[in-house]
Amino acid sequence: MTDGDFLDLVWTEKKKTGPIVILLHGLEGSINSPYAKGILRTIHNNGWQGVLLHFRGCSGRHNRLSRSYHSGETGDLHTLILTLKERYPNRDIAAIAVSLGGNVLLKYLGEQGDNCLLKTAMAISVPFDLADSAKHLEKGFAKVYQNHLISRLRKKMLSKFKSKSAPIDLDKLNEWNNFYKFDHNVTAAIHGFESADDYYTQSSSKQFLKSITTPTLILHSKDDPFMTKKAIPSEGELSPSITVELTEHGGHVGFIYGNTPFNVKYWIEKRLVEFFKAQFI
Questions:
Q1: Cα pseudo-dihedral 128, 131, 137, 139, rounded to 10
Q2: What is the pLDDT of residue 2?
Q3: Residues with catalytic annotation?
Q4: pLDDT tens digits for 236-247?
Q5: Beta strands in 99-225 (DSSP E)
Q6: Is the pTM of this model over 0.90?
Q7: Whether 59 and 139 share a structural domain
Q8: How many domains does the chain have?
Q9: Helical H runs in 1-141?
Q10: For residue 191, which of 93, 46, 40, 76 has the smallest C-alpha distance?
Q11: Residue 1, domain member (yes or no)
Q12: Do 78 and 185 share a structural domain?
């Protein structure tokens, strides 16, 4: 890293050998997200070592710089992968990522291409087209998700800049009440993009899929409330290294199955074991 900050990590129990699996969480997620605990537990139970990378400010501690995190920021992930490879050169490194984290991971895989140091990867419920997601979250019941997340992002900005100068006008935060307005006036402004449109154009992972050479599994549902079906990449937009498993139902990071409400199982955890085991051989 170039700015003197540190990576905010949570590890499972230390292991001297075997694969290390990086977990990237979703928007405003953390180690306290239910899916994060389940995935890390599954990684541990299969004899691997897991490490969750908190995006900046998501662990409860603010990043000391004005910058935060966003859907296209791959620098911290790259730093983590390089550090792990330097410290554990004989261990396979893999990554699994959810929602916003999935967009970050797929973009990173495409940016790196043949130079990627990851053995394998898995991405779940990815907002492949950020502009599509921003528009879709303005409609119908999806606005409930938008309002909840925007409220959390606003509170984080107010807390972050409570005792230091802000690069944005905090008095206007309440006016930026949807993702497009927030991304235009906050995300883009803080992270050096010209506009929300510029941010979406540069950061959407869909355009990077053809360049991915790392074996990658994508799990996605057609009824994902965070985007339209149009955002789902077509076969022609995928590289030969990508496998897409598309379900009719599953919502956003859902994929629950089981015979009864008391026997709930999570398809994500089942598939990550099956897919990663095949790649680690």
A1: -130
A2: 40
A3: 99, 224, 252
A4: 999 999 999 999
A5: 120-124, 216-221
A6: yes
A7: no
A8: 2
A9: 34-45, 75-87, 100-112, 130-136
A10: 76
A11: no
A12: no
